[in-house]
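queue> pop job 88
queue> type: inverse folding (structure -> sequence)
queue> payload:
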């Protein structure tokens, strides 16, 4: 949604938009969800237009520094009680949330689409990933948080255990491109670990977070444990950073660096998924037909509004002549539109700003001599923010579209001699979030680890790794710090504590004369290594 001037409005939830498109926030739904925003003064609102039609579709109250203070005060009280609950109790709530998401998927997806403009299929993928993550951490939290025995300094005499304590109140700042999953999945892990959460959703997409909060509360989660404070980053975001015990951020690399500096000044842990300029390599032995459809999905899912979306495409000379015409034809025939229908493959861009960025990159490339194989045009007949999925080739390497993140439906296609040149060019980037490699599974075992990226999908664009919730997801280089998903995605929200019970004598006080102690310990260390009884 496009933010307008902050002011109060009398009817922020019109029944329908142009073309008869229904507003899922009408009929009291929007007013009900507004009650879940932790904002005291409701006189100031942010009026939002839907990218589906460009018309005002809702309004959101604007939070203040004082609202954040109140949210953290009540969250800290709730967290102390929550920390005493068992993993089984937490699992029950997370499983209920999973079930409620699936039961109410139509309503949730409608709101996601209203705010983001994404296709129905992309909205469903977001909902499905959120449900899978809730189920995963519900099932795994008990195992991950269980007290673990560790090797002590001396066998028998030293008994060492590792405990995991929740951080306290986690501050989360989430983006607009995946407003459900990128808010809820991090929050789910933090809650499963025993924390409270204060969330600032992006100002353009607050209702996607609020509808999920409603389902969480219905699942039995204490209201003060997970709170949403909408508002400006300069106010609400800064207030969260000043009070959080841990900060989770998803957004641009430049903003991430600034927030990391602030977190460092407070000596709190920080995790961030940041930008990407993700590459796909189509090797000589690739299945061309599969790679064509895989490219279409990888580059244009969610209108390219995806941190792990493919924006650079390197195709081996051997398959170029077969691959390029097939890809061009497939992209030219994609179904575009602005609706809740399942048959739309790509929706509009999320805002006028993102639309203008995509146009700027394409026009700069054209002026530099690039060839437009597909797309490169606005489609106002389908919606004010619809832009055709675009394939560029013959792009000079100095052109910004070759190395700067577009975050839109634009991919640069380049011919390479072989897969090794493709890997070299893929690695020639400041980013390293996601990569895709199309080759035989046997060959991939050698090639994939050579790619400098936090995730590498073999014979898939991005979904294979992103859906593997038991594995870490994050970036190399400028693409992030820390990881979400997997065991580490939960344990990062805990403080590990080591407790060692020493028997007979303190380890720092030799129980023998010092020279004899030194000789005995030397023998013990040698035997420990030989018989592998020490770590």
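queue> result:
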């Amino acid at each position: 949604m496009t933010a307008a001037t902050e002011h109060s409005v009398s009817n922020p939830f019109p029944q329908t938009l142009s073309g008869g498109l229904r507003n899922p926030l009408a009929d009291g739904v929007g007013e009900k969800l507004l009650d879940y925003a932790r904002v005291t003064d409701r006189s100031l609102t942010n009026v939002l237009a839907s990218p589906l039609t460009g018309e005002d579709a809702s309004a959101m109250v604007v939070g203040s520094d004082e609202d954040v203070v109140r949210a953290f005060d009540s969250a800290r009280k709730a967290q102390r009680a929550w920390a005493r609950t068992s993993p089984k109790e937490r699992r029950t709530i997370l499983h209920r949330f999973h079930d409620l998401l699936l039961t109410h998927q139509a309503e949730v997806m409608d709101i996601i689409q209203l705010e983001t403009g994404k296709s129905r299929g992309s909205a469903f993928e977001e909902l499905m990933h959120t449900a899978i993550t809730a189920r995963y951490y519900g099932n795994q939290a008990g195992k991950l948080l269980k007290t673990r025995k560790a090797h002590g300094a001396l066998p028998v005499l030293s008994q060492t255990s590792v405990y995991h304590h929740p951080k306290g109140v986690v501050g989360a700042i989430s983006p607009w491109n995946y407003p459900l999953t990128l808010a809820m999945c991090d929050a789910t892990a933090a809650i499963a670990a025993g924390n409270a959460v204060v969330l600032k959703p992006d100002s353009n997409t607050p209702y996607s977070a609020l509808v999920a909060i409603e389902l969480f509360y219905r699942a039995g989660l204490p209201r003060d444990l997970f709170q949403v404070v909408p508002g400006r980053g300069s106010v609400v975001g800064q207030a969260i950073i000043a009070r959080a015990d841990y900060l989770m951020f998803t957004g641009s690399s430049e903003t991430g660096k600034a927030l990391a500096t602030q977190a460092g000044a407070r000596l709190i842990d920080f995790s961030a998924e940041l930008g990407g300029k993700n590459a796909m390599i189509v090797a000589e032995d690739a299945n061309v037909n599969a790679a064509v459809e895989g490219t279409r999905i990888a580059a244009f899912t969610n209108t390219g509004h995806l941190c792990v979306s493919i924006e650079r495409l390197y195709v081996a000379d051997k398959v170029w002549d077969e691959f390029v015409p097939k890809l061009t034809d497939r992209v030219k025939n994609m179904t575009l539109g602005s609706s809740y229908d399942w048959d739309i493959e790509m929706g509009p861009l999320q805002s006028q700003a993102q639309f203008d960025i995509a146009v700027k990159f394409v026009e700069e490339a054209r002026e530099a001599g690039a060839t437009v194989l597909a797309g490169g045009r606005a489609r106002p007949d389908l919606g004010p923010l619809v832009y055709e999925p675009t394939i560029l080739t013959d792009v000079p390497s100095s052109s910004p579209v070759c190395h700067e993140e577009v975050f839109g439906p634009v991919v640069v296609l380049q011919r390479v001699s072989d897969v090794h040149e493709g890997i070299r060019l893929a690695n020639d980037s400041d980013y390293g979030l996601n990569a895709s490699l199309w080759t035989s599974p046997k060959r991939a075992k050698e090639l994939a680890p050579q790619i400098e990226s936090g995730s590498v999908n073999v014979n898939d664009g991005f979904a294979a790794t992103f859906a593997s919730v038991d594995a870490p997801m994050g970036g190399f280089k400028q693409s992030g710090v820390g990881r979400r998903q997997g065991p580490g995605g939960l344990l990062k929200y805990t403080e590990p504590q080591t407790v060692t019970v020493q028997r007979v004598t303190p380890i720092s006080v030799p129980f023998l004369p010092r020279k004899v102690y030194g000789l005995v310990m030397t023998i013990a260390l040698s035997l420990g290594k030989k018989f592998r009884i020490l770590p």
